[in-house]
Amino acid sequence: MQQFSTPAEIRAWTREQRKAGKTVGFVPTMGALHDGHRSLIAAACAECDEVVVSIFVNPTQFDNPEDLENYPNMLADDLGICTAAGVGAVFTPDRDKMYPNGYATFVDVVGNLTDKLCAVARPGHFRGVATVVTKLFNAVVPDVAFFGQKDLQQALVISRMVSDLDMGVEVRVCPTVREPDGLAMSSRNRRLSEEGREKALALPRGLEMANQAYAAGERDSNKLIEILAMELLVHTGVDLDYAQVVSLTGFEEVDEVKDSCVLAAAAFVDEVRLIDHIHLGGPALPVSLD
Ligand code: PAF
Q: CA-CA-CA-CA torsion for 180, 275, 60, 127, nearest 10 degrees?
């Protein structure tokens, strides 16, 4: 596995692969790799001849400097995971290579996709994500890029951007990987205390309770949100940031749930912000409701 730290180097590597008739898959990450990332790398290896993983904690998508500061850095472990998974190249740029002095260009996806859910509490977050993903795509020049469905809003923002700007990259959105007890895998889970880890389970549990109510015929969004909120706030004492039901067609908030809606939520546990969602009427989450 090769490691590159400048856009010019990784671009030259991709060019070589393409000259040899190979397709290049790309998994952008901020490091602290877990099984969710492993599943993205596996999907990329299965579909493409060569795979690039980027590891870059992108400052422009953090609205909170402390969150950026506390983001886990586990580069040695990450490189081991990439080697074992069969990755051909890792791209680990320095901040000043990505955002040199005088940097002044940003990519902004506007409208329904970026006016709700995570965008409200994290102003500028999706602008930072869209900007860095554009820069990473320009450096890596992949054929196919892989994102996790856990960050649903991010995946939709990136898909919109790729289509609007004719970027010519195929976007694959891969299923959320969960711990056996239902907690969605996230690099942030490492920052939870033992007690916090237990409390965090209220998020998938509350989502699954709402999903069961939907399966039993409940179609009022507020009632479904209330079920989730009760489980988080009242039963577990977890702070809810938001809970909303949105349609996947149009990403509008809905009062009455019809087909293709998700209940999405963010909550704070141990001051760590966790997000998750459930496709109402979709498969049950592996949680205990006893
Ligand atoms: O999902 C992430 O880890 C990041 O938002 C991404 C896509 C690597 C951009 O920094």
A: 120
Question: In this structure, what token pair is assigned to residue 149?
Answer: 């469905």
Active-site residues: which are they? 37
Query: What are the tens digits of pLDDT across the range 125-150?
Result: 999 999 999 999 999 999 999 999 99
Q: Is the CB of 28 under 6 A from ligand 1?
A: yes
* Length in residues, the chain: 290
Q: How far is the CA of 30 from the centre of ligand 1 (A)?
A: 6
Tokens, residue 179: 């711990």
Instruction: Check if the beta carbon of residue 144 is closer than 8 Å to that of residue 48.
Output: yes
Q: Please give the model's pTM, rounded to 2 decimal places.
A: 0.97
Residue nearest atom 5 of ligand 1, based on CA coordinates: 129
Atom 1, ligand 1: residue with shortest CA distance = 29
Nearest Cα residue to 283 out of 232, 183, 208, 184: 208
Please tell me the predicted confidence (pLDDT) of residue 206: 97
Position in ligand 1 atom list of the atom nearest CA 133: 9
Residue 117 neighbours by CB under 8 Å, 6+ apart: 153, 242, 244, 246, 264, 266
The whole-chain average pLDDT of the chain stands at 97
Atom of ligand 1 nearest to the CA of 129: 9
Amino acid at 215: A
Pocket residue to mutate for ligand 1, from 67, 107, 154, most atoms within 8 A of Cβ: 154
Q: What is the spatial order of strands in the sheet that 261-269 belongs to?
A: 239-247, 261-269, 272-279
Q: Distance between CA 57 and CA 70 in Å, rounded?
A: 11
Domains of the chain, CATH where assigned: 2-174 (3.40.50.620), 187-279 (3.30.1300.10)
